[in-house]
């Protein structure tokens, strides 16, 4: 895809599906340009579509759209997206589930899909609406994490409300999995990407962590490492004990966007939306909560405020359900939620061990890796450890960020029993 490669029919389909554009507008001009380096896609290419329109009153109207497409320049990236059915799954989720989950009066928690094809999706452009990602090298402060937890509570509440309303209609219990199946994407035993994350991190632990010279500890670590990682996959299966909701499962910096306003001469984050729903699946809500906290917070800050953040999320979920006539204790008792959070802590830390080493790198290096088929394939599917080792050796900030994640896995799950 490049400049001016959409057909007139495709352009008209985009305009026709844009709610705020009245009938009778005429396309005067348009351009398609690759999104900035700061918006490089992990498994897709990102584009900005700018359209100049002429209304029936002969006024000029300019609209900006965001296009997410299967990569045309990186075969490894495209193959990985197709193998995991990521675009098909995300398009289905937007077209089928989000429409059903948005009829509850709650504030939006996602960007709006305009239209889609088999290998591309067109969204409203959140940047044009003053939303942007927080600098990925800055962990979230209280202001940002509370906004993100608030949005997460709306998202999860929408899943529960849908099930509860449907149950009333059919006069028997209804659960989303009765009709829809969700796969686990790359988080599967023997998936090449997941196995590389697991093996690569173990290699770093045994050669570069604070445990590298402790023979007894290394033996315990090596004996339990795979068991711990596979246990994280097991607890993400649909629970028979805790209430399940549709979970995002990919809540790292680039998938969370904030809108900022000037409040009393201070720029503050005032709203938050999630993007990229290609990894959604049914799990206990605590799995998303712990994943979010692990992927975005400083570890010390996280643990010092953990109870506060968990209570805040639960209270927001309670309020969202209450506005739709649902008592939270009837669906997710507080004790169950806290118990589930401790169980899902493992999922949160394993996901952060998979994702953070990939995104805690400069935009220049991200561009080099993500835009080169050979490098992308090697790092993600063949030899992740060599990449992480090189980054640790050459970047003190990367070292201080990555090693504590791996060492927490060791401390909590390999040496604690």
Automatic annotation (TrEMBL):
Residues 121-323 form the CHK kinase-like domain. InterPro entries: CHK_kinase-like, EcKL, Kinase-like_dom_sf. It comes from the Eukaryota. Gene3D superfamilies: 3.90.1200.10. This is (African queen) hypothetical protein.
């Amino acid at each position: 895809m490049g400049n001016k490669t959409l057909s007139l029919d495709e352009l008209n389909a985009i305009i026709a599906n844009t709610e705020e554009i009245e009938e009778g507008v005429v396309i005067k001009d348009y351009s398609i340009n690759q999104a900035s380096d700061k918006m490089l896609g992990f498994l897709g290419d990102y584009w900005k579509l700018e359209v100049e329109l002429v209304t029936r009153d002969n006024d000029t109207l300019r609209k900006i759209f965001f296009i997410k497409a299967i990569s045309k320049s990186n075969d490894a990236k495209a193959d990985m997206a197709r193998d995991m059915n990521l675009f098909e799954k995300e398009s289905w989720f937007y077209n089928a589930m989000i429409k059903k989950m948005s009829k509850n009066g709650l504030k939006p928690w996602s960007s709006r899909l305009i239209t889609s094809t088999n290998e591309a999706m067109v969204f409203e452009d959140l940047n044009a609406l003053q939303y942007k990602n927080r600098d990925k090298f800055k962990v979230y402060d209280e202001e940002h994490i509370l906004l993100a937890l608030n949005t997460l509570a709306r998202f999860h509440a929408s899943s529960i409300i849908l099930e509860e309303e449907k149950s009333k209609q059919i006069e028997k219990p209804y659960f989303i999995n009765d009709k829809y199946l969700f796969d686990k994407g790359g988080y599967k035993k023997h998936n090449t990407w997941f196995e590389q994350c697991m093996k690569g991190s173990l290699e770093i632990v045994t050669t570069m962590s604070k445990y590298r010279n402790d023979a007894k500890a290394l033996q315990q670590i090596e004996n339990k490492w795979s068991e711990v990682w596979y246990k994280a996959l097991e607890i993400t299966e649909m629970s028979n004990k805790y209430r399940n909701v549709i979970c995002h499962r990919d809540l790292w910096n680039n998938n969370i966007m904030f809108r900022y306003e000037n409040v009393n001469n201070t720029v503050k984050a005032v709203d938050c939306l999630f993007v990229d729903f290609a990894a959604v699946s049914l799990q206990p809500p605590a799995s998303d909560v712990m994943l979010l906290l692990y992927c975005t917070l400083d570890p010390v800050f996280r643990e010092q405020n953990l109870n506060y953040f968990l209570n805040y999320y639960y209270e927001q979920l309670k309020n969202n359900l209450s506005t739709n006539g649902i008592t939270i204790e009837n669906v997710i008792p507080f004790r169950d939620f806290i118990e589930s959070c401790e169980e899902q802590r493992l999922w949160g830390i394993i996901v952060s061990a998979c994702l953070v080493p990939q995104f805690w790198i400069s935009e220049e290096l991200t561009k080099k890796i993500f835009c080169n088929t050979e490098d992308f394939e090697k790092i993600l599917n063949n030899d992740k450890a060599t990449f992480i080792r090189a980054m640790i050796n050459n970047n003190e900030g990367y070292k201080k960020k990555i090693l504590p994640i791996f060492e927490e896995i060791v401390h909590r799950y390999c040496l604690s029993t």
